[in-house]
Amino acid sequence: MGADTYGHIFKGDLLYKSIKEGNIYPLFTQFWYNGVQPFRYWGPLSYYVLAGCEFISGGNPINGYVIFIGYSFFIGGLGWLLWGIHQRRILLSLVFGILWFFLPENIRVLFVAGNIPRVIIAALIPYLFYFVWKFVKDDDRSSIIPIALFMCAIIMCHLMIGAMVGIASFIFLSLYSIMNKKIEKSVHVILTMLLSFAICGIWIYPALKGGLVSMDSGATSSQMMELLATPFTISLNPFLRLFGIVDREYFYYGLSILIISILGIFVSNKKSAPGFVTSIVIFLGTTTAFVPMLEKMPFSQLLWMVRFTPIAYALFIISLLNWTKCKKYFMIIMVVLIAADSSLSFNLSLYPQIKSAEVDNILSSAKNITKQRIALLDDSTFGAYPSFYICSEDKKISYSYGWAWQGAATAQNIVLLNTALEKGYYNYMFDRSLEMGCDTVVVAKAPMKKDKRDFNIINNAAKFSQYTLYKETSEGYVFHRKASENFGVVTKYSGLCIGRSASDIPLEYPSFEIGSSWNIEDYTLDELSKYKVIYLSDFRYNSRSKAENMVSKLSSMGIKIIIDMNRIPADTITNRMVFLGVTAQPITFNTKMPDMFFNDKKYESVNFKDEYKRWNTVYLDNVPQVTGFSWVNGKKVPFLGNGKERNKNVTFLGFNLIFHGMENDDSRVLAIMNTVMGTKSSILPKRVLVPINLKYGQNSITINSPKNNVNTTVAFLDAYKSNSGEIYAKQNLLNVNKGETKIRVTYPYLFQGIAVSVIGLLGFAFFIIYIYKRVV
């Protein structure tokens, strides 16, 4: 059970088998995402725990996971028993130890989310706060070292949750120090937690430097906060679980916990009140009503408040344990309420499970025929299960997907492939699957666009890229293309897209390549002259005059330049969007665009979708040659035009036309764009498959190529160091030239990471000396 469970099991199994072979920290695996660094962006400690459990099970990863569940419950519960011994409330602590992983959010994290690092952290939290309490309340200076150790363990499981523990501790200790006059000790704890991040620098520095900080960076912080927030009418409704409404989107905080926390603020003592207040503050942060406020706060990217919930539970239990003057019968009533409230989550049959029989059928078929790699186009409808099953022991096969795509160098490729599946861009989908080196493509039926599920449409797109149907099941289709066991691809694109908003263009026009930079000045004229068409949308430049000169030179060379005027840099002085003398003027349409006239034909657009009812766009002003226009309030408004003389091959585009055609499914507008772009969706780049010799060693890759400029279909990582032969990235994939290329997979930024850890350790050593010399 659990959405992510199998992905974690695969990594634990990978680590276990690597250790058996003498590789205690594998830097690379070829099985996911065309090659990925398995522990660079995900805290490695969790996987050493899973590998240890697999060792205890005798090498069976599934049995190892079952052992892991048992240990998690036992170790987490034991932490609360430690509290009971300290507080002399053993029976009460024993009850909370048993209940700990059955509290609503804790059991959801385990059996719905399947987030193993968060489970381990939940088991460690009672110990961390135990030593925090001993240090702050009991003045036990020796507790500072365990605080750092447990904090480092949490960080090395999950960086983001480590930061959340620090934030929650800051809130709690701020309240506690004010109410109980323990300011200095509280400051010492926060400093220790901060130093713990520096101590873990050997892992954190490469993760941050890589741009993906293992903090589930799949979207902007505001989007994720909105996605994770829950209306209080749901998060405080205990009865929803009675009707089986328990899935990944369902969050229940615990009505009993909130009521007792509110009560505790008014009738408990100074030791208990800070924990009750903190738990309420965290709950309020999980609600949709507080998202606008959280977005404006510092470090908002860390405020995914649902993930703070286990921390809130711990502080809540600590507050109950310290409510020593609470009447025994009243405490019994509260514990019974909490147990009853949590018991609705005990029915594990309500939790989602992978339909392994149906999924096994289609995946086993794909594995049987695959020689190099599988493209699993399921939009995660199969969950994380394929991440384990496809790469399992009976027949290990690489595939271009995997669980937790954010850490992949090919993340952009994967996002566009998923978009192609969802929106029906099947020509692009099969072509780019071939570019990723996939001789087998599995297409799931569930996520496909309803009006484009016609098998003939899919099959024709497959044929364009020379894939043929191998098998159809209830879950989807298996397509296969004959190829050698290891092959690379040599490709010729006719067009190039440059700019932040240009990445979706190849979905409609697969013959276009996405540029490696948004800045046009980062390319040479020689590089750009290899293309027939260049599309600029939301592009960048250092100097407008230099950019204009580049475009004019390319135009005079006969290369077609299309400039999306809806998204060009604004003039730094006038704040007007001008390029080559043409100005983009703002205009807004409601419901639909006006009739468009192009090539002596009238084009009537379709209505905008509901989310685009108000269409904010631009028209063209001062364009030399108008080739497309509309009439708006009796005025001729150009949306398409060309330059003159040196700029005769430059086309200026308004109305955000291509985005409208793609997003609103406007075939008439796309017909205009086909003429403008000089291509259509059925025209693919020219690709030639090249047999290559590719061998993986322990953190090494050796490639023999018979030709130059070969895309090896292996992901390009910044951890690669070439011992022989030139390597370079194109479309996030590793390209090599003719001959033998030997590559070492290194630990990136190793010396910088060690330096940060050494600084952290030295700082902590001096801090310990300061604390012990301090007169208490």
TrEMBL record:
Family matches, as InterPro entries: Membrane_prot_PTPS-rel_domain (IPR018776)
Residue stretches spanning the membrane: 65-83, 90-113, 119-136, 148-175, 187-206, 250-268, 275-292, 304-323, 330-351, 749-772
UniProt keyword Manganese, yes or no: no
Record key words, sorted: Membrane, Transmembrane, Transmembrane helix
Ranges for domain Membrane protein 6-pyruvoyl-tetrahydropterin synthase-related: 39-660
Annotated protein name in UniProt: 6-pyruvoyl-tetrahydropterin synthase-related protein
